[in-house]
Specification:
The protein is an alpha/beta fold. The protein has 23 helices and 14 strands. The protein folds into 3 domains: about 350 residues, no CATH class; about 25 residues, no CATH class; about 150 residues, IlvD/EDD C-terminal domain-like (Glucose Oxidase, domain 1, 3-Layer(bba) Sandwich). Helices cover about 35% and strands about 15% of the residues.
Length: about 625
């Protein structure tokens, strides 16, 4: 199938824009790879420390240097459902590698926090920066230079991006991502949303709300809605960093165990000394990143990846921006309806065809680069498949030829929408991202007076006092990475949804985040420059008329040029930067770049010389 012309043009533009930094990065990892396995360069004392705790057989193998050693970097903890299954993975991986004459060591652990637990709480202001902490922790884990390859155990929001950014600093090593999979379906998502709105209206008790939430989030595995965590898993498939079909197999199933074992063994077979050597930094190239953006649009994935994909790409010396996202979105049809873009969850999605069907549909219509490297050892077509276990043996078969439920997955010829789920907004208020895959057409253009807030609690106080029963665009500023770490703002979602249901024209404009759970209320998010960096949001006043037009891609304030010029910038409130560990991240806030630059707090990572923003 001939590639779409816009896909080719955007890819070529990214290649040209990234030429200097990509070349520099590839030279760096090539030099590291040419030195061979790191253990061969360790002194006797270094190596003795590195193998002191190994079993006798593994110690002998590592002492002689004749066997492949895979490092395990894990996000295990047993408080969070998505990460709890990883407790047993190191033993599974080690046993699988012993079967092929290789060994493994747990190189290190990384923190894994859950936005579902911290949502609307002070700890949420640490969430985005946890990605960069994870990246640095991954680099520390690999800095012992003991490994021929690495498996990355992670799933959720900041964990996968952080693991990849850290592993790309060791991009001469092969790496495979191993997920844990989603929990089985619980309370239906539309019912969960209905109950949340009833609570926001004061019609049910907190106990009733908690009972419903526990029925939704009830067992080990990721949440089943299509938020950032499950968008992560989609991206790892489309980027060829999973074993094919690994994204959405449930925990504690025979299939999940077989995929984990296969991933470990495959990592050894593409290790630094193997004939099939596949370094991570070479596998992730401009075409891989473009494929990821297309996958995000086609599935209605998380807005967070307009930040995280930028950061991952920069870690590999590749520069993308929101214009690239927007142009690729214009050619990518929306093929999926997964909650919050529809009632189905990821388990339902998998049963009716899943990612194998979607990837095949995109490949067949020229919207993905097929000739890319993957950890499976072939092009992306290998991912248009589904894994099965028969007689205890793992194999792959072609994905179903057509959707088993067109309310969940559609064909390229009959999509839910002709363009992707994410759009770029530009105008006098800056550049912003909006997710429209769950927003009804009637709500995609909102012109209303501004109501300005500096915190979610300030909004909720006015809402609970009945002061927001009107047409309104809520402007929530000083929520960007430089101000307070860019927390997600879903505490507002039920209230805004209720106002919309009452017939009011409402929207949200913020320099904060809303993530993959962005729903039916139009939300212009990641507004850049943010208010703390002198962005236009800092000058907005109550009752200013604002136009949010997701159809035309505009975000404008209707204030005269003369009046606007006379206004002074609102100063960042000081009270939001301390407590609950936030003071430890003051350096991160001072160093972080803009959302469109990936909100990275790691200075210089992948920086372009003079042509930044070209």
């Amino acid at each position: 199938m001939k590639l779409n012309n816009t896909l080719i043009q955007v890819t070529d533009r990214i290649i040209r824009r990234s030429d200097k930094t990509r070349t520099r990065y590839l030279d760096q990892i090539r030099a590291a790879g040419q030195q061979g396995p790191g253990r061969s360069r360790l002194s006797c004392g270094n190596l003795a420390h590195g193998i002191a705790a190994s079993s006798g057989e593994d110690k002998a193998a590592l002492k002689t240097g004749g066997k492949t050693n895979i490092g395990i970097v894990t996000s295990y903890n047993d408080m969070l459902s998505a990460h709890q299954p990883f407790a047993e993975y190191p033993d599974i991986i080690k046993q699988a590698l012993h079967e092929i004459g290789a060994v493994a060591q747990v190189a290190g652990g990384v923190p894994a926090m859950c936005d579902g637990v911290t949502q609307g709480q002070p700890g949420m202001e640490l969430s985005l920066f946890s990605r960069d902490v994870i990246a640095m922790a991954t680099a520390i884990a690999l800095s012992h230079n003991m490994f021929d390859g690495v498996v990355l155990l992670g799933v959720c929001d900041k964990i996968i991006p952080g693991l990849l950014i850290g592993a790309l600093s060791f991009g001469h090593l092969p790496a495979i991502c191993i997920p844990a999979g989603p929990m089985r379906s619980g309370l239906p998502n539309p019912e969960k949303a209905r109950i949340r709105q009833l609570f926001s209206q004061g019609k049910i008790s907190k106990d009733e709300l908690l009972t419903a939430e526990i029925k939704s989030y009830h067992s080990p595995g990721t949440c089943t809605f299509y938020g950032t965590a499950n968008s992560n898993q989609m991206l790892m498939e489309v980027m060829g960093l999973h074993m094919p079909g690994a994204a959405f197999a449930n925990p504690d199933t025979e299939l999940r165990g077989a995929l984990t074992k296969a991933a470990a063994q495959r990592c050894a077979s593409i290790g630094i000394s193997s004939d099939a050597y596949t370094p991570l930094g070479q596998l992730i190239d401009e075409r891989t990143i473009v494929n990821a953006i297309v996958g995000l649009h086609a599935t209605g994935g998380s807005t967070n990846h307009t930040i995280h994909l930028v950061a991952i790409a920069r870690a590999a010396g590749i520069h993308i921006d929101w214009t690239d996202f927007d142009e690729l979105g214009s050619i990518t049809p929306l093929l999926c309806r997964i909650y919050p873009n529809g009632p189905a969850d990821v388990n339902h999605f998998t049963k009716v065809g899943g990612l194998g069907l979607v990837i095949g549909e995109l490949l067949d219509n020229g919207l993905l680069h097929e000739d890319v490297q993957t950890v499976a050892g072939s092009g992306l077509r290998a991912y248009a498949s589904q894994p099965i276990v028969q007689d205890e043996a793992l194999s792959w078969q072609p994905a179903v030829a057509a959707s088993l439920d067109e309310n969940i997955i559609r064909s390229y010829a009959k999509p839910f929408a002709k363009t992707g789920g994410l759009k770029l907004l530009t105008g006098s208020l800056g550049r912003a991202i909006i997710k429209i895959s769950a927003v009804q057409p009637i709500h995609q253009i909102v012109r209303a007076p501004a109501a300005v807030f500096h915190s979610q609690d300030e909004f909720l106080d006015q809402y609970n006092a009945g002061q927001l029963e009107r047409d309104m665009i809520a402007v929530l500023r000083f929520q960007g990475p430089r101000a307070n770490g860019m927390p997600e703002l879903h505490k507002l979602t039920p209230c805004l949804g209720t106002l919309q249901d009452k017939g009011f024209a409402v929207a949200l404009v913020t320099d904060g985040r809303m993530s993959g759970a962005s729903g039916k209320v139009p939300a212009a998010i990641h507004v850049s420059p943010e208010a703390a960096l002198g962005g236009a949001l800092g000058k907005v006043m109550d009752d200013d008329m604002i136009l949010l037009d997701a159809v035309a891609g505009r975000l404008e304030i209707e204030v005269s040029t003369r009046q606007w010029a006379r206004r002074s910038q609102t100063i960042l409130p000081e009270t939001i930067q301390t407590g609950m560990g936030r003071e430890l991240f003051s350096g991160f806030r001072q160093l972080t770049g803009t959302a469109e630059q990936g909100a990275l707090s790691i200075p210089g990572l992948g920086d372009l010389p003079e042509q930044e923003g070209s």
